[in-house]
Amino acid sequence: MRFSTASTVLSLPLLAAADVPNYQAQFDNYLGQAQTVLGKFASKIPHPNKYDPVAAAEAKAGALNIDILSLDNWKETLYGPVKPDSTTPEEWWVLITGGNKTCFGHCGRIEIAFNETAGKWALTPGSPHTALLNCEDQPVLCNSWSAPVGALWIFEILPEPAPVNIWTKRFNMTTVTSDDIVELQKEGYKSAAHLHDGFFHPFNGPLAKNGLAVPVGWVLWAFNLLPSWAFMILVSIFSRSMM
Fold first, then answer.
1. Range 93-106 burial, b when 16+ CB lie within 10 A, else e
2. What residue range is the signal peptide (predicted)?
3. Coil, strand, or helix at residue 132?
4. Which CATH superfamily is domain 53-223 in?
């Protein structure tokens, strides 16, 4: 039996139509597998801006009177108590802390000491304001500040657009107590702390002044998610493209 070329060409659409359901079923199967893999991958990505407004309100209204800083509220919070005509800076003591992934389980003691201190200051008029920045919940904000966990950042806030001085102090996280923090405040922190004037300064630094601090924070956060081997592959690809 012979087949003509014309009849063969005319029969191709019919054959394709007959095979469409099989191809569609295979496509749906592959799509489902891809979605499952992507879902598992996405579930392992830490949230870059985790914030619980109910817990934050309870921390603020409670006996400790602690503010919880986030990517969306940190600047508004720090400027909140500043009066427009004030010439005396509002003093904020901010603990940079984290969880097991960022602190490796070593921030618990300093958090307890800081909370005890905040409780004492909440009962004393004229004491500094207190706040927490959790780098595990707010990795983009911590990266935009280049803020290390386990450190105290002391902000001196004047009305905008006045520069903001920030003093940083690291404690021994295995031995620190509330008395150490209270003594630092009473004795004068400027003699023991370090004046922050770096590139990542959240108010006075060039990144902040040019609106680049948060974008850089996002980039650093994304790079931190990459395993070392993936980063090396990207560097290799980039270097070869430059060559």
1. bbbbbbbeebbeee
2. 1-18
3. strand
4. Glutaredoxin (3.40.30.10)
Domain ranges across the chain: 53-223
What distance in Å separates the CA atoms of residue 19 and residue 80, rounded to the nearest whole number?
Answer: 66
Q: Is the pLDDT of residue 15 over 90?
A: no
Number of helices (H), then strands (E), in the chain: 10, 6
Give CB contacts under 8 A, 24+ apart, made by 84-88. Answer: 84/159, 85/159, 86/158, 86/159, 87/158
Give yes or no for a contact between 94 and 153, defined as CB atoms under 8 angstroms apart: yes
- Greatest Cα pair distance, the chain, in angstroms, is 105
Query: How many CB atoms within 10 Å of residue 182?
Result: 16
Identify the pLDDT of residue 192: 94
Q: Tell me the per-residue pLDDT of 158-175, one tens digit each, with 9 for 90 and over.
A: 999 999 999 999 999 999
* Contact by Cβ (8 Å): 67, 132: yes
Span 47-62, pLDDT tens digits: 566 777 777 787 777 7
